[in-house]
Each structure stands twice: as structure tokens, then as C-alpha cells.
Design goal:
Catalytic activity (chains A, B): orotidine 5'-phosphate + H(+) = UMP + CO2
Number of strands of chain A: 8
Number of helices of chain A: 12
CATH superfamily of chain A: Aldolase class I
Distance between the termini of chain A: 24 Å
CATH class of chain A: Alpha Beta
Oligomer: homodimer
Strand order of the largest sheet of chain A: 1-2-3-4-5-6-7-8
Organism (chains A, B): Chlorobium phaeobacteroides (strain BS1)
Shape of chain A: globular
Protein name (chains A, B): Orotidine-5'-phosphate decarboxylase
InterPro entries (chains A, B): Aldolase_TIM (IPR013785), OMPdecase_type-2 (IPR011995), OMPdeCOase_dom (IPR001754), RibuloseP-bd_barrel (IPR011060)
Structural class of chain A: alpha/beta
Helix content of chain A: 40-55%
Radius of gyration of chain A: 18 Å
Pathway (chains A, B): Pyrimidine metabolism; UMP biosynthesis via de novo pathway; UMP from orotate: step 2/2
Number of domains of chain A: 1
Largest sheet of chain A: 8 strands, parallel, barrel
Amino acid sequence: MNAARNKVNDRISTTKSLLCVGLDSDQNRIPELYRSMERPVLEFNRSVIKATKEHAVAYKINTAFYEARGLEGIQDMQDTLDLLPPDCLSIADAKRADIGNTSRKYAQAFFEHWDFDALTVAPYMGFDSLEPFFAYDQKLIFVLCLTSNSGSADFEEKQLQSGETLYESVLARVQEWDRNGNAGVVIGATKSSQLRDLRRAAPGLFFLIPGVGAQGGSLRDSATLGVDENLQGALINVSRGIIYPDGNFDSVDVFEDSVSRKAEALHDEMLKIF
Amino acid sequence: MNAARNKVNDRISTTKSLLCVGLDSDQNRIPELYRSMERPVLEFNRSVIKATKEHAVAYKINTAFYEARGLEGIQDMQDTLDLLPPDCLSIADAKRADIGNTSRKYAQAFFEHWDFDALTVAPYMGFDSLEPFFAYDQKLIFVLCLTSNSGSADFEEKQLQSGETLYESVLARVQEWDRNGNAGVVIGATKSSQLRDLRRAAPGLFFLIPGVGAQGGSLRDSATLGVDENLQGALINVSRGIIYPDGNFDSVDVFEDSVSRKAEALHDEMLKIF
């Protein structure tokens, strides 16, 4: 039994939500009112978490947005982790992987030092670059498979001589390598036409599905096609579509209310599939 | 003209060395004598840099080893950057890449906040995941191509329907995308049989060649086959093979002397190709 997987599946069934809130928190884009605070990004994240926690089953911290500000940003990441509701999955969206002895250090960083529940990793370097992550049998590992961006056509969607595409090959290999039941894949929400086949090919893998909202993916399709046979095993991530609602906000309450309504609307859509 | 490229090519020609020293500095593996110091990894790095700077043309900081210790490790990374000789190339070996707006943040982290000269990135997500890095026209971007680990067989070496392997496709696309003359690729030193063909196919790309030493790649082959027609454009990285010499070290001087001899021996081998 996998602690991270159980936690988030329980939460999915309880809340009837698949919502993963992406904390792509950009100091230059958060509402003006936070910028004069002592810890702008941390306070912004505090508001977003407060406003969404009723609807969310997971939170995804996009490490790039924190690393961009160096030590100060990483301090914000660390302190944000402490704000996450303990019954929600915490995901480091870091897309790491390297040769084995280096991947072990990344795994140590995210699973031991920061103690995230889950991590995104990149498959290019193959098995021994991923195995150190899979070795953490109480965590969830999401391997990039078919991403939402246009560049997915450059390599991911290329057909191999075996007849399958690269992303299908990644899906198949991840299933083979998943000896601890802790593997997942990242499938972009803009790829809903392939989602049905991918779910059929990998009924047991956890799917992390970003790309709804700013990137244009369909929420309904992603939810319907992404879940497993127990209506679990899938997370729909929305980042910019929740954390940056339109409007001018003259108080924290008004901002939180606006974010909360965004999350509620997404949750309402998701309820329909249960 | 690219500042990073020119700097390291000048240094290669002046020193007749291709040596990149990999600072994969592991707190649990550094000599005992450093562990009682206030900043063990930083002091260890100071010794390694001092002992190798006559022979090195570049230093590669493997971000995993610093992230593994959280803020304290990243503080060590930041302070190590200040110790690097300004005429050597500073490389963040971070293997980042994500959708465009996220890659922009990683580029900001490594090229603006930390101000590295160069960065390693992963190609899986395609053009728009790499373009934000290539946009920094005074920096060098090394895209993973054919790596030194056994997992390179899982995806990188797979043949595409077009007849080329995935890594050959990556090499070709990186050349197309290199509008600023700031692209490079990572080719493992264990792949010397392919190195000649890759250099012929991409005469203008910078090659970062890790895998000599602990991973078993041939130094002589990597150097001979990796350089461009001006005997520049290639870096041979050695990490564990330099920074962890055998022996018990009862003083900083004895350790530095041992590291220095390792670097000198590698430099002596490289001199032969000039």
C-alpha cells in the first residue's frame, strides 16, 4: 500500500474532486496588494490555499517559480509546504532526472529534505535515471509522457520503428518499471483525444493532467477520460486559471473570494463525473 | 559573438585543456577533515577549485547535490559560484525544461539570479520548452543528447520511423533551433563510438562530455573525437575521478595536492591532442 496514493485517492472519493491547484506563483503577477507585504509570494500562497482547500485534493508547487528568486524563493517554497492541508497531496513539479547517483540526490531533496508526497520526473535518460525515485515506495512519481505544449510534436509524438510513439513507449516502460505501485504519468489536458487510449493502456497508473485553463484543455474530457475504474487515480491541475482571477483586488478577502469561486466552479464541473 | 562560448574557447586554447571539473560535492563523501568545519561542502569546494584551477577550463555544479540539503546546500552553491575563476566557464548541471512560461523561470533562475554561464537542459518536451533558454544569447545551453548511462538504451538510442535514432533527431533539431550560436549537447564519454559521427553531423555545436572516470569513458577518445576543427568546442567533465582521490587526508594541503595531481594527469593527457 502506498501512502501518497491512498491519501489522494481517499481525498478524491471524499470530496468528489480531482482538482490540483498549481502554485505557479510569480512575484510579478500576484495582485498589487500582496506586493507590499513582507513575504509577498508566501502570503499570496496562503490566500490561495485558504480559498481552495475545500475543493482541492492536491497542490502542485512549480519549482521554477521559486528557484527564479534564489534562496528567498526557495524559503517561500519551504514555508508554503507547511501551509498545505495534510490530507491533500503535495507535488513538486520539478521535472528532474539524471544519472543514478544524481537522481538519488534529487530524490533525497524532494522526498526527504522537503518531504513532498510526489514529484514529476523526465524520462529521456531511461530506467536507471528514474529508479532512484521509484525506490521511494510511499511516494508518487509522475513521469512526463505526453505534454500539453506544442513542442510535444518534436519528440514525444514521433513514431518509433516499433510502431508506437515515443510517449506510448514511455507509458509502457513506466508500467514495467512500476514494481512499487507508485508510478504515474503526466498527460496534457490538450491531448484528450489520446487520453482514452492511454487510460486503457495503463489502467493502474496515476495520471497527472495539467493544461486546463490557460493552456486550453477541456476539463470535462480530462476528468471523464482520465480517471481509473474507481473514479480515482487522476488529478486535473489548474494553475493560472485559479490563482490569477481577473479583477482588481483591494483586499485579501475580495481576492480570496474570487479564487474560491474559481475553484468551486471547477469542482462543480468535476462533481458531474462522480 | 557569444560571451560564454568565447570565454571557454579562449581558455581552451590558452591552457590546451578541455577539463571541466564536476563539483558533485557530497557532504557524506568528502574527506573527514572537512566535516568538522563550519561549511564543509563550501570549504571542500574551495580546496578543489584551488587545486584544479590551473588545469580547468570549466566548472560544473551538479545542482542535485546542493538541493539535497535544502537551503543550506543552495547557500553553498551560491557561495561556491563566487569562488570560481572568472576565466573558466560556470555550468549549472540542472537538466531543467518545462512548458515555455516555466522554462522562462528556470532560465531566469540560472542565468539571471545565479548568473551561471551555461546550463544543461532536457529535450523531451521539444522546442518551446528549450527556446526560453536559447533566448539568452550570451550563455551556453547544453541539451541532453546521448548520455553515458545504461538507460540511454531505453529511449535515446531507439530508432525512429524516419530511420534516425532519437538522439540523432535531438542533435539535428538543436542545430536547427540554434539561431544564436549558443547551443551545445551532452554526449556521454562512454559513447565514443558514436562521438565521431555526432561531431561530423554537428561541426558547430559545443559538446559537453561527461562520463570519464567513475563511469568508465575514455579520456583520449573523448578529447580527440569531441573537439571541433579549431581544437575547441568540447569539454570533458570529470567529477568523482578528481574530487574524491583515494587516501586518508590529514590536512587540507595533502588533500589539495592529491586533487591537483589528478587534474594535472588529466590535463597532461589532453595536451597530447593539441
